[in-house]
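note to self — DONT lose this again. spent like an hour looking for the file last time. sequence + predicted structure for the chain T wanted, 398 res
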Amino acid sequence: MSSPLQRRVRDRIAAPAYPWVTGGVVTAGAVAELIVIPAGVTTTIGVLVSAASLMWRRSFPPIAVLTVAAGLLGFAGDINLYVSIMVSGLIGCYCLGRRRVLHPALTVAGGALGALCVNLVHINTWSRMELPVPALWEKGSLSLFAESFLLTVVVFGAVMMGDAVRSREETRTERHLAQARMIAVERQQAAEAERAAIARELHDIVSHSVSMIAVQAESATYTTPGLTPEARDGFQQIAATARSSMAELRRLLGVLRTPQGGAALTAPQPTLDHLAELVEQHRAVGGVAELRITGERVTLPAAWELSAYRITQEALTNARKHAPGARTVVEVDYGAGRLLTLRVRDDGPGCGAGSGSGAGHGLTGMRERAALVGGRLSAGAGPDGGFLVEAELPWGSG
């Protein structure tokens, strides 16, 4: 992970004004340097163009070719190497590698050719200044090309540095995209698994109810005295239809089952009567929890009982995960208006699954369970701090 200082520096460099500010500073430095050390027309133009062109290097990266070329031209016009040319040349070479204006090999080859031309111009200048310059074919003449070698090394280093930074950023971007795709797949799989779990539970509930209808309709033909033949046929048709519906339900939803053993498939679904056990399980793993029940206990339809239990279970799981050690209170209110209200709140830091934004898998599943029975669920920071999950589940009008 990068430090706050590194992030601030990276943000400053990424700011739109950064190339204009740095280009302006180098240009101002070039003007001051030319005032202190006057140069010829060629060198003056080369120095100023090389420095000023830096301001457009981000909006138009190919201009870095002009930056480097003008810098080499300015150096060729005078045997003195201006500091502004060094700075603008390095930045220009870095930009060429960073933005991949050309292939790095072509960029380095072009820079080497430019360095050789500058060196040849300087050799000619030295000879006209009557300096002891050996002829190109004489012994020791290779030392004359040390300048072009050093310039090529500098160009190579700057271009390769820019290309390395580009490669690293591309790798970082690809890694972030891969992580985002993986997170999206995990969320989708979690949502699908949650829906599959709900479907399996509803399958168990509905199958049980339909099978009871079939058994009661069939037994009614034997236990109810004085039935007419038409009534007996009607009960038999009800039983046959119930069995057919149950077989169709198993055929459509049975694929959602996972092989967990016969006992797991036939185990009864939990209800609100099991909340005390759920709270005890939370305490057994180190949690601090309290169960409060208000109103008269009413036996709700199986889907409502199961949804309320699962919502409470997931809320306690989130509390253990995101606020370990926090005190959790589970409140169940059997309202007079056939409204069941669940509240699970803790005194933790208030950063539940998804931070209350709905992005967490647990919150998504709880909202789907509440919507399944016509209710609603909200989750977020509590009025007194901590995290609060509140669900209202209406369970009928009469």
